[in-house]
Design goal:
3 domains, alpha/beta, 7-stranded mixed β-sheet, binds pyridoxal-5'-phosphate, 18 strands
Length: 462
């Protein structure tokens, strides 16, 4: 056995090693900078290993394998597709709403070249990026006018800044929500220079609570949909109608942040009722805001619908320039809203709605298929009935009957860790110390990916 010093001396010099590697096909066509980094990192890895006695010998092949491994990892895309086995349909950490094949085709087709993003093809003059979608959104939601910004947080902030800067906005204490860690109503208020006036108590707010605080400095009555939690028991809140009427009486603006943009009545399909955008507008709200990538099932954006004169004012607000959406968003959103013109179409074609409305029998069939695939490589699994959730801060009480596979006889945490890394990460849950994949959020074109990942695990190929 070589001594430590001898072994350290056999570590190659970076430049020399690179020269020899670059003669090989695998390295020849890789960016030189990346090869250089991988070689440096690899030599450092071996030096450290030798010094702390974890490496007592190595060959040229060991070194080359390590470099290949580092290089491949550094060259791969960091943003990648993952398999969602969590059973949470709108998973904010996993990218919320899904894009359908047809939507992806449309994006590719429309974005391949230049576009009429801000060009009016009728007058051959400069146009507005919002013009492509405004009438469509208005038609589908029943609004007078519409505007789209980067996300719902920006939508709320833009409205507050335009209509309530340096004035007072009244909101119920029960609605001071925090969504996904970074959206807090009080913080957004502060950013937009609106002054927050809280009324009522956490569980009960009455119309007279709002009325009592209205003064000459009040500009808006705001309702925030408590989309990610539910207060039950001894509760009272003020209806949209009451709030809208009160604001008309005092010449104020009424606005509702609905969070999730629901356009169809889910109760028709046996799922908990969520207030729809149209209902909120019909109740008399002047402005309604919602996310594009929650229950709407579209791209990340925030949609503002409501009174035309108010939307026109928003279009002139300086923040709109900072919050503006890109051509990908406009293109995708037009596609999504077009599907909503016919409810049957959108229910059939939108992957988010699909998953929510899918019959649990179909989910069970997928669990059976995956189970038989895993049986074939002698993996012990069990189909378990479970409850999928909608997520994305939507419908906190609604669960959907689903089925999943529990992987038996393998430590759940170990599998969970292995599955989250490498190519095609699979994100599942660990329950009762077993790795669990919920089939609600797995699609039939993902079986082979899961199967191959299990095979890799069994063959210790990591
Ligand atoms: C999700 C949500 C938001 C934030 O929307 P983003 O599109 O993520 O910015 C704001 N308000 C409510 C009530 C929400 O549910």
């Amino acid at each position: 056995m070589k001594t430590k010093q001898n072994l350290l001396r056999t570590l190659p010099k970076v430049d020399k090693l690179i020269d020899s590697l670059l003669e090989k096909d695998f390295f020849k066509n890789k960016p030189y900078k990346e090869v250089y980094t991988a070689v440096e990192e690899s030599i450092t890895f071996f030096r450290k290993g030798i010094l702390n006695d974890t490496i007592i010998n190595f060959s040229e092949t060991d070194m080359e394998n390590k470099i290949t491994q580092i290089l491949s990892k550094n060259l791969e895309y960091k943003f990648k597709r993952v398999i969602n086995g969590t059973g949470t349909i709108l998973h904010t950490n996993l990218g919320r709403a899904l894009f359908s094949e047809n939507l992806l085709d449309h994006l590719k087709h429309s974005l391949k070249g230049y576009s009429n993003l801000e060009f009016d093809l009728e007058t051959s003059k400069r146009g507005s990026r919002y013009s492509h979608i405004e009438n469509l959104i208005a038609k589908v939601t029943g609004a007078e006018a519409a505007l789209v910004v980067n996300n719902n947080a920006a939508a709320v902030m833009l409205c507050l800044n335009e209509f309530s800067k340096n004035t007072e906005v009244v909101i119920s204490r029960g609605e001071l929500v925090e969504v996904g860690g970074s959206f807090r109503i009080p913080d957004i208020m502060e950013l937009s220079n609106a002054k927050l006036i809280e009324v009522g108590t956490t569980n009960r707010t009455h119309l007279k609570d709002y009325e009592k605080v209205i003064n000459e400095n009040t500009s808006m009555l705001l309702k925030v949909h408590t989309s990610n939690y539910h207060i039950s028991g001894f509760t009272t809140s003020v209806s949209n109608e009451e709030l809208a009427n009160l604001s008309k009486e005092y010449n104020l603006i009424s606005m509702e942040d609905l969070g999730s943009g629901v356009l169809i009545d889910f109760s028709k399909y046996g799922i908990t009722k969520e207030p729809t955008i149209a209902e909120s507008l019909q109740s008399g709200m002047d402005l309604v805001t919602f996310s594009g990538d929650k229950l709407l099932g579209g791209p990340q954006c925030g949609v503002i619908v409501g009174k035309k004169e108010l939307i026109n004012r928003l279009k002139k607000n300086q923040f709109l320039r900072a919050f503006r959406v890109c051509k990908m968003t406009i293109c995708a959103l037009e596609f999504i809203f077009k599907e909503y013109i016919d409810e049957k179409e959108v229910v059939k074609n939108n992957p988010t709605l699909n998953r929510i409305l899918e019959d649990s029998k179909v989910t069970f069939e997928r669990a059976e298929i995956l189970k038989s695939l895993l049986d074939s490589i002698n993996l012990k699994t069990e189909i378990i009935e479970t409850k999928a959730i909608i997520g994305g801060g939507s419908m906190p009480n609604a669960t959907i009957k689903s089925f999943g596979l529990a992987i038996k006889d393998i430590d759940g945490t170990t599998l969970d860790k292995f599955f989250a890394t490498g190519d095609n990460p699979i994100i599942g849950r660990v329950q009762n110390n077993e790795f669990f994949i919920d089939l609600k959020t797995i699609h039939s074109d993902e079986y082979s990916i899961i199967f191959n990942k299990f095979k890799k695990y069994i063959n210790c190929d990591f």
